[in-house]
Design a protein that fits this description.
alpha/beta; Rossmann fold; 2 domains; five-stranded parallel beta sheet; two-stranded antiparallel sheet; 9 helices; 9 strands
């Protein structure tokens, strides 16, 4: 009944197919488009989660040549279609209620058992502009669902870096280098950490965050994101 009332008072159109949305819990998406968000099942690097072109390879060349500090990185799906639209609505258009259904689909992948959950932070300038951190909203939901501790004041971004979009893998890593810092190291010393972000593309941000967390004493670091994007 509540759902019907909300649909009458606040009718919404699905941003993916332009049909009417009848389920307020996933609005503005319609049920068909939301159910079309499926996990990526293709070949991928077992370390960083990068989609690969062949089932023969299990580790990508980048992870072989430059081993990351995290144990593994996994994404729910590919950064396209309705999933991409949902992430962008959450990230750029203030549709914060999507953090609940998006965290639900993220929990459909095999998440490791950890001690604490840490979101990839925003620089304070970017946080003031956006007024919230989309990765922190997802991390809050995951921590609550699995009864993990959520830590948001430990890993901080100290440098306001340029946007990563459009940069090569090498330039992304150079852009993000030394832009994160760990405070209150005792909080994470010896802890298994679940590092959460919305999208991973080249992995530069996840790699840098994991590096400083590992250096600060974290025992194991696992990274998860909603989607894996391809290089621009």
């Amino acid at each position: 009944m509540l759902n019907n009332i909300l649909n009458i008072l606040f009718p919404e159109t699905c941003p993916s197919c332009e049909d009417s949305s009848h389920n307020h819990s996933i609005a503005p998406f319609c049920s068909d488009c939301w159910q079309s968000m499926v996990p990526y099942k293709g070949p991928k690097c077992q370390r960083c989660g990068k989609p690969l072109v062949s089932d023969v390879s299990i580790i990508c060349g980048e992870c072989i040549n430059d081993e990351p500090a995290f144990i593994s990185a996994a994404s729910f799906g590919l950064y396209n279609g309705p999933l991409k639209k949902a992430i962008n609505l959450l990230k750029y258009h203030g549709v914060k209620r999507l953090s609940k259904p998006l965290s639900d689909i993220l929990s459909r992948i095999n998440l490791p058992e950890v001690d604490v959950v840490i979101p990839v932070p925003l620089h304070h300038k970017r946080l003031r502009e956006r007024e919230y951190n989309q990765s922190a909203l997802i991390a809050y939901r995951i921590a609550k669902k699995y009864d993990y501790d959520l830590i948001q004041n430990c890993l901080i971004k100290t440098k306001d870096t340029s946007p990563q979009v459009g940069l090569s893998s090498k330039d992304r890593r150079k852009n993000i280098k030394n832009s994160f810092e760990v405070r209150y190291q005792r909080i994470i010393t010896g802890k298994k950490i679940l590092l959460i972000d919305d999208v991973i593309t080249t992995g530069a941000t996840i790699r840098e965050c994991s590096r400083v967390l590992n250096k600060a004493g974290a025992s194991f670091i696992y990274a998860v994101t909603l989607a894996h994007g391809m290089k621009d």
